[in-house]
Amino acid sequence: MAPNLILISLFLCSFMAASSAGNFYQDFDLIWGDHRAKILSGGSLLTLSLDQASGSGFQSKRQYLFGRIDMQLKLVAGNSAGTVTAYYLSSEGPNRDEIDFEFLGNLSGDPYIVHTNVYTQGKADREQQFYLWFDPTKDFHTYSFLWNPQRIIFLVDNIPIRVFDNGESYGVPFPKRQPMKLYSSLWNADQWATKGGLVKTDWSKAPFTAFYRNFKANACVWSKGSSSCANNKNNAWQTQGLDANSRRRLRWVQKYFMIYNYCSDLKRFPEGRPRECRRSRF
Ligand SMILES: *[C@@H]1O[C@H](CO)[C@@H](O)[C@H](O)[C@H]1NC(C)=O
């Protein structure tokens, strides 16, 4: 083979290996909304859309038990009031565990709310909400779950916005036995989503579309009753916590962008705040 050809085929091989790492055809099933959910560009792009008849959604083929899961999302642009893009990990069956991002749309130019929650054994009521420090409809940004036996960290562009510690030692259940799939859906929630339900969806702007790319799971995959973790150089997440720098960034987000924290909502918990709120510094 001529040197040029060798170079070209080397290039093609590495390109194929890289792109198969996050191929939506391989990793996801479209589960709701017929043609409204689409995989495009040879598997490197996924779109969900919502019109007056239906929303749409997808789920991962695999189940995970701990991992670091990254995805880039570009949210519904323009007047997205009334729409909700949910992006979450969830187990199946009763007493489920769930780790949620939900993006609540807004009128053009008004800020999205990033709503987060953690369910353990079917119980949630642990909402924290944030504004973002950028417009999430202009470009793709990375939203990540870091989930290891010690804690769950929610990250936006690698900046931690929320930490949920394993509080089993003080009686708070932690998700660690039920494998979870990754889900996303785009749906209409104009009864409550925007300004508490005051602003309704403007269907003349439909269909509404959200975009997904660069899915990456450094995770332990569950299969036939046991989980196996990739053994590679990317598994720092298995013990990762917050170093001084990420604590500083978390404080910055919580100081300037957090708009609701269940732990500070005293009137909601007349019997006393949840245990994890009394323990955690965040
Ligand atoms: C929408 O914008 C208003 C400000 O105009 C803000 O109060 C609200 O938090 C924003 N987000 C949602 C989802 O309502």
From TrEMBL:
Function noted in UniProt: Catalyzes xyloglucan endohydrolysis (XEH) and/or endotransglycosylation (XET). Cleaves and religates xyloglucan polymers, an essential constituent of the primary cell wall, and thereby participates in cell wall construction of growing tissues.
Origin: domain of life: Eukaryota
UniProt-annotated location(s): Secreted, Cell wall; Secreted, Extracellular space, Apoplast
Residue ranges constituting the GH16 domain according to the UniProt record: 18-212
Keyword Transferase: yes
PTM comment: Contains at least one intrachain disulfide bond essential for its enzymatic activity.
EC number: 2.4.1.207
GO terms, molecular function: hydrolase activity, hydrolyzing O-glycosyl compounds; xyloglucan:xyloglucosyl transferase activity
Family: Belongs to the glycosyl hydrolase 16 family.
The organism of origin for this protein: Prunus dulcis
Matches recorded under InterPro entries: Beta-glucanase-like, Beta-glucanase/XTH, Beta_glucanase, ConA-like_dom_sf, GH16_AS, XET_C, XTH
Record keywords: Apoplast, Cell wall, Cell wall biogenesis/degradation, Disulfide bond, Glycoprotein, Glycosidase, Hydrolase, Secreted, Signal, Transferase
Pfam families in the record: Glyco_hydro_16, XET_C
GO biological process assignments: cell wall biogenesis; cell wall organization; xyloglucan metabolic process
Name assigned to this protein: Xyloglucan endotransglucosylase/hydrolase
Glycan attachment residues as annotated in the record: N106
